[in-house]
Amino acid sequence: MVALDTKDTKNQRKADGTGHAGNDPRPLSQVFEDLADKTTAPVSFTELEDAFTDRSFAALLTFFAILNLLPLPPGTGIVTGIPLVLVSVQMVMGRETVWLPAFMRTKTIAPERFRQVSNRVVPWLQWLERFIRPRNWPFSQRQGDRWLGAFTTVLGMSVVLPMPLSNWLPALATAIIGIALCERDGRLMLGGFILGVVSISIVFGFAFIAANVFAYLLTFWPF
Length: 223
Fold this sequence. Notes:
mainly alpha
């Protein structure tokens, strides 16, 4: 049985912005692992939100970003990137809880598939969690959500763009920022921000080149 924080500890965490964003003291990797171990039925996004407790924004941001890092069929980013944008926009709006459309809330992942995802994600998270801790966090909780939400909205839109290999780097940057937000790790957040800027530059650079090539080819199109 997991011991919850005492009231004083929780209040202190809220006051100084340290520790996990919610009441659950488990690291994010343990949340994924526990959910994968005990699930015997398809996992819905609503169940994921409940499992992530008060960390739902940052944790769902991380989860949807990680989905885009898995080997999926071409064009899947259009579908898996939309939740990234939805969650990020709501962070900018300052919502206290995540809202997802009904068709998305009832969307489920088969338990075998969820365990496969967890088996890929958990070792990576566990490795990363050895190095991260609450430090150098430059924002208050709500202020950080808004600023980082604005940035991950742009990253999410980059993921949605139907361009080959355009979604991997923005998704990785979003996952890193989501984990940093969970743990209030300012150094990790800075790393995710830098990677995000690089990925956005690459994606929009490719988009600019593609647009110019398309415009050039149109000059030869017979009308």
